[in-house]
Fold this protein.
Amino acid sequence: MSNKIALKININNEEIKLNVEPRTLLVDILRNNLNLTGTHIGCDTSQCGSCMVLLENECVKSCSLLAVQCDNKSIKTIESIGNENNLSNVQKAFKNNHGLQCGFCTPGFIMSAIECKKNNLSSEDEVRDFLEGNFCRCTGYQNIVKSITSFLKMP
Ligand code: FES
Ligand code: FES
C-alpha cells in the first residue's frame, strides 16, 4: 500500500496536485517535481536562506518545511517574481545596485526583500537585522543591503 499523501498547493498562481511521501520537504518538490530550480539549497542546517519562498505571503525556509504542511496553501517562488524580459522592481533594484556576485543566495535575498517591504521596513539597520537568516558567502552584503533599501523606496 502506498504511503503517499495527496496534496493540492497553489504554486505561483497555479493549482498543483501531487502525491508525496510524508517526509518530503517543500524544497524537494519545488526543485525535483516541479523543476523550479531557482529555489536553492545552500546548507543542511537551515541557516543560509537560499531556499526561501513565500508561504501565504510570509518568508519561509523551504528546506525546513514539509510539503504536507503546505496543503491547500499558496507558495510563491523566485520564478514568479519576474523574468529577464520583464524585471520586477526588486530585481531592478538588485541589478542597479550590483546586489549580487555569484547569485546563488540571490533568490533568498529577493524573497526577504519582498517581506521587508511588506513589513514597512525603511532603515538600513532594520534591513540588516531582518537579513540575519540569509547568508551571502561572497560577503556581498553591502550592495545587497543597498539594493533592498533602494527597493524599499520604490513605489
Ligand atoms: Fe534552507 Fe540553507 S538550504 S536554510
Ligand atoms: Fe554569492 Fe551571495 S552572491 S553567495
The helical segments are 26-33, 89-96, 106-118, 124-130, 141-153. The mean pLDDT is 96. Strands lie at 5-11, 14-20, 52-55, 58-61, 74-76. The first helix runs from residue 26 to 33.
